[in-house]
């Protein structure tokens, strides 16, 4: 059998990630590969750290991209800060809170869960009750932007609670970085991780992380070795530290880092707050169009993620057939529900370069077509008029 080069079609990516990748970023990926210890590449690494500090709104020295996707960023935060026997309070209001619990238990620590309703933000009163009951907890962990439900939690208030009870914080910002307000230093976040493929509109495979001075002190004071050699920040610092001399740790994904650098340059050019406002404006347009189609949101307006729109599948409409139609007829991808929401919701992404008015027009038109074919009564014209208005 002779296998030819893989030539993928051009899709419009409006699922929970990856998002559309801007042509400038794709061009950056194709630039000549340098050695991962080349002085020019090391200089770009320093720029990348500064750009990530801008995106996170932080001055944390330990701010860098992990050479692996967001799940590895999550694991990096947990394995560096959690030790066997520790107690960690974990807020669970969707799939990714559950993954945090899995990290805690695999380390040999105890996860105390704050179970909140799916589709709702983390309940502050519940969290305080649990923290009051578990004064020996070391860490409060929560998902800022729950990708499985589209709910946005109040990270600033949760961090204030953690400080009140003398806990460090671990925050999942995989879907929030670059899409909604996020202020690491002002809010007192101790450890945070994200992903390159969401609102940064880069390719998947990198996980920006940042650790506060208090988190770094906790890492240095560990009684047990970090469970993961590859994700041990003590070792990674030798490669990502400041200055020209770097200790070999691993071969960095050179061209992928070019892409992340370019995406962050573009974020800086747009302006962080402008990016937040663009996502909010595109969400308002999409929301109006979906409501005109009779498609309703899972999350209340005050707690919705503008970049991840979780909506109920109308009665009588077949989930899989709609998604297959969009992909086959329009090269358009939206996401299925996860966990408790499997088969009940669609997850529609408006992240980064995907958050454009032409994508909203395509989605509303194609979705109306797909549902009409199944006997559902709706009007694409009404939806487009509402979106424009």
UniProtKB/TrEMBL annotation:
PANTHER family: ALANINE--GLYOXYLATE AMINOTRANSFERASE, AMINOTRANSFERASE CLASS V. It comes from Spongiibacter thalassae. The keyword Transferase applies. PROSITE patterns: AA_TRANSFER_CLASS_5. It comes from the Bacteria. Residues 40-337 form the Aminotransferase class V domain. This is Alanine--glyoxylate aminotransferase family protein. Keywords: Aminotransferase, Pyridoxal phosphate, Transferase. Belongs to the class-V pyridoxal-phosphate-dependent aminotransferase family. Coiled coil: none annotated. Its cofactor is pyridoxal 5'-phosphate. GO terms for molecular function: transaminase activity.
